Amino acid sequence: MIGAKLKVALLYDVWNEDPVATAEKEDDPPTRKARHKKTKKKRKEMTDREEIFEALAKLGHEPSYFELDGRPQSLHSLSRCDADLIFNLTESFDGDDTKEMNVVAYVDLLGIPYTGSGVQASAIAIDKLATKRLWAWAAIPTPAWRELEADTDFGAVAAALGGPVVVKPRSEGSTIGITKVSSNAQGEMAGAYAEASRYDTRVFAEELVTGRELTCAILGHGGAAHALPLVEIRAPQANYDYHSKYFSDQTQYLCPAPLDAALAQQIQSLCVKAYAALGARGWGRIDVMLKPQPGGDQPMLLELNTSPGMTGHSLVPMAARQAGMDFGDLVVRILSEATLEVGP
Ligand SMILES: Nc1ncnc2c1ncn2[C@@H]1O[C@H](COP(=O)(O)OP(=O)(O)O)[C@@H](O)[C@H]1O
Ligand SMILES: [Mg+2]
Predict the structure, then answer these.
(1) Is the CB of 288 within 6 Å of ligand 1?
(2) Each residue of 126-156: pLDDT tens digit?
(3) What's the farthest any 2 CA atoms get from each other in the chain?
(4) Kind of pairing, strands 7-13 and 85-88?
(5) What pLDDT score was predicted for residue 104?
(6) To test the ligand 1 pocket, which listed residue (302, 307, 314) has its Cβ within 8 A of the most ligand atoms?
(7) CB 214 within 8 A of CB 268
(8) CA angle 203, 209, 213 (to 5 degrees)
(9) How far apart are CA 15 and CA 42, in angstroms?
């Protein structure tokens, strides 16, 4: 199928304003939708789609751009799209990240093959609490956690989790709304809870894992899925936050991660199992922390990204290069996984 000349629509989302900034300026609490709007995505999407367009054109395919602008009209136009395949680069609808799965559901109903995970895996992966619950049931190690409410005894939660914690909104990305709390002081936890609550109605505290940070790119579906070489992320002060992710030239990415081969393999098979446990397909990336233990480092899985960065500089293409696949090979590989079948 991929040998033939294909019409590939590069589906992406845009919005015209940044109400977070506006709302903050006006000292007005942002609406739920507004809270999910972020400026960084405009920058990222631009590059993703342009690079994929170029790679596909070079390979003799017929790429085109398809923009979802948050209005129903753009959904209506998509229903008339005559593409053979959709490369799904959307991460939100009208800037709301939690609607990423709705776009997948809509495309699925249109009957056009699309790249990446189906509705169910997309819905679970956007919800870190649901992800952690499923992983825990499948005996996949993930940092211990407790959901927080406004009236939670924060000190007791920190004590139960055994010390420093990370407070996170259930559904966000790019480290937004995440605070590391070094002490179990009620005030510090309350501040972290308030920050995370700006982004989601549900918030949790998770054991802070102090070791090295890795990410594992995965390609494929079910039993045929396989992990690419691991990437180690070394951020300044071991703080891989929004700034060190997108704006720092001090953050180092090492691929393959310099790890003992047996440990690297253990992490990769754990990540494939974790990916399959969520029913993911096509491609994805799992974030992992290593917990230093007397018997050796213990991998702890943080989250699955079903729509990872896909510029030439992103981590999945970096891992693919290490496995001998150039950007065009990777694009074709992701497209070849596109199917009409919804995953488990
Ligand atoms: N439990 C944890 N222990 C240590 N660092 C963490 C932990 N959870 C998150 N982090 C740090 O915060 C970053 C973002 O967390 P993550 O759960 O991947 O959310 P997202 O990337 O969706 O914002 C991670 O890449 C890591 O650097
Ligand atoms: Mg992450």
Answers:
(1) no
(2) 999 999 999 999 999 999 999 999 888 888 8
(3) 62
(4) parallel
(5) 94
(6) 302
(7) no
(8) 105
(9) 8
